[in-house]
Amino acid sequence: MNQRQSELDQFLSYLQNERHYSAKTVLAYQTDLHEAERFWHENGGFPGWTKVRERDIQVYLQHLAERKLARSSQLRKMSSLHSFYRFLTRRKLVAIDPTQGITLRRGEKKLPQFFYQPELKQVFDSLKGNKPLTMRNLAMFELFYATGMRVSEVSNLTLNQLDLDLQTILVHGKGNKDRYVAFDDKTKKSLIAYLENARPLLLKNDDEQHVFLNNQGTGITSRGIETVMQKTFNQAGISGKVHPHELRHSFATAMLNNGADLRSVQELLGHSSLSATQIYTHVT
């Protein structure tokens, strides 16, 4: 085993066995570091991790910026290099950390994009009729707007999570965190119409428990919801690229505009920290 492999392998072993990071996280570090190494190989040669200097790091970061890589991706790749060299310094495998003098400023957080109520009314009004997929789309998009659920939470929603009498949903959120969300009478009416008159026509297998089905009779995926939303909103006259997350933003913005406090909105959105919710105050 050569020295370069030894340093990188020691670091990855440390992440896995001492820090107990998940395999996915360890792989992300490995990918970031291999990418930096490959860049140096192709641009003047790679002298080994212990011989990388601050100037090499700066040239690599310049390369990432020129690729128009998202700021968050640049920050993550820099963070991987920081962590690696902090490890090498502590283990006395390098004398000077070449990343210590480099800081990437986090860009201004983008304000969440949301829809105004007249735009949403335009979309909901366009979903009239008794075609199964039209009824599904109306119930699905109204539910997004009424609850602020994530696209993965709507995609994975099953019948036993739904309580039509109490008008609540038990949502299985990120990090196995459960929360309850409520929906209004209008959404309840659309849901019942879909469940009674449209879902049975889409259903192919009685064991299928997902609430929202695709035209194959299986649960619609997150990507499927994104595609359907793009088509539906564009056909209703909402131009440009749209994403289900904007319905979540619209829910949060409407809640705060109507007097809800931040803590309540945090609970309903399933945010683990209040700081994630506070960005909506800039919108309102």
Shape: elongated
Mean pLDDT: 86
Low-confidence stretches: none
Helix content: 55-70%
Number of strands: 3
Largest sheet: 3 strands, antiparallel
Supply Rg: 24 Å
Q: Helix segment count? A: 12
- Amino-to-carboxy terminus distance: 58 Å
> How are helices and strands ordered from N to C?
HHHHHHHEEEHHHHH
Oligomer: single chain
Q: Which structural class fits the helix and strand makeup?
A: mainly alpha
Strand content: under 5%
**How are strands sequenced across the largest beta sheet?**
1-2-3
Describe the structure.
By secondary structure, this protein is mainly alpha-helical. Helix content is 57%, strand content 4%. The chain has twelve helices and three strands; from the N terminus they run H-H-H-H-H-H-H-E-E-E-H-H-H-H-H. It has helices spanning 3-17, 23-42, 54-66, 71-90, 117-126, 132-147, 151-155, 185-202, 222-235, 245-257, 262-269, 274-283; strands at 162-163, 168-172, 178-182. A three-stranded antiparallel beta sheet has the order 1-2-3, with no helix packed on it. A hairpin with a 4-residue loop joins strand 1 and strand 2 (168-172). Helix 1 (3-17) packs antiparallel against helix 2 (23-42) and helix 11 crosses helix 12 (274-283). The longest helix is centred in the N-terminal third of the chain and has 20 residues, at 23-42. It is elongated, with a radius of gyration of 24 Å. The mean pLDDT is 86.
